[in-house]
Design brief:
With 237 residues, the chain is mainly β. Helix content is 0%, strand content 46%. The chain has no helices and 20 strands. Strands 2-3-10-5-8-11 form a six-stranded antiparallel sheet, with no helix packed on it. Strands 12-13-14-20-15-18 form a six-stranded antiparallel sheet, with no helix packed on it. Strands 1-4-9-6-7 form a five-stranded mixed sheet, with no helix packed on it. The chain is globular. The protein starts with a strand and ends in a 29-residue tail after the last strand.
């Protein structure tokens, strides 16, 4: 049994202190011990079968299952299938005080309700304050081929592309996306994630503070989805 942090993709080493994202890969039969320390953690399984064990409880893992791990939790991940277990792990530092004393939960994406966002986009919540994750929201987004207008959010976010091809636009910055691409998105950055492929693009993301993935605003501060209150227009370039 080993202790593994995973291959870091976004976090303090890239100048982003709000969240830290890593890709963890365990070969068949491999196990590793982890410790959430003072942070909350999320785990989303991209491929493979496995198990998460914490406090004497065992939780089965499969593709598109997501786990929440509260602060102060030592746990073990194991790959139990015939292929490698690959998971996206996100640490949420300085969690809300309510996170103390929480328990590990595992949820299946297919069991979560699809909800509407802007420009015919949809999302499914993996975990949020209603299901244990006190300081952030963990979700999977479904992005159709229609390009959304440029917009911003009031939360900090890390994103991992699961399926599809596209381009990330932020001002004069344009970056092509494919499965495995990672994005760090500071709050109030005007941007657009464009799907250029033939089918739906899917992303898994975590943002803080917690809220609705539909909470987007056009550059002038106008809400991009019904029911979202207006905000000031102090946005990042």
């Amino acid at each position: 049994m080993g202790s593994r942090e995973g291959a870091a993709t976004v976090g303090p080493e890239t100048g982003f202190d709000a969240l830290a994202q890593a890709v963890l890969t365990l070969e068949p039969g491999e196990r590793c011990a982890r410790d959430s320390g003072e942070a909350e953690e999320t785990v989303f399984v991209v491929a493979g079968q496995g198990e998460l064990e914490a406090a004497g409880e065992r939780h089965s893992l499969e593709p598109e299952s997501g786990a929440y791990v509260p602060p102060g939790t030592r746990y073990e991940l194991a790959a139990s299938g015939s292929e490698a277990l690959r998971a996206i792990c996100v640490r949420v530092p300085d969690p809300a005080s309510e996170a103390a004393g929480g328990r590990v939960t595992v949820r299946r994406l297919a069991e979560q309700e699809a909800q509407a966002a802007t420009t015919e986009r949809e999302f499914r919540i993996v975990c949020d304050p209603d299901s244990g994750l006190c300081s952030a929201t963990h979700f999977v987004g479904y992005i159709p081929t229609a390009r959304a207008p440029e917009h911003f959010h009031t939360y900090d976010e890390v994103i991992y592309v699961l399926d599809g091809e596209g381009v990330f636009h932020a001002g004069d910055y344009h970056e092509r996306l494919a499965p495995g691409s990672c994005i760090q998105l500071p709050a109030r950055t005007v941007h657009c994630l464009e799907n250029t492929g033939p089918g739906t693009m899917r992303v898994v993301a975590v943002f803080r503070p917690a809220g609705s993935p539909a909470a987007a605003y056009y550059p002038d501060g106008t809400p991009a989805h019904p029911g979202i209150p207006p905000v000031t227009t102090d946005v990042a370039p």
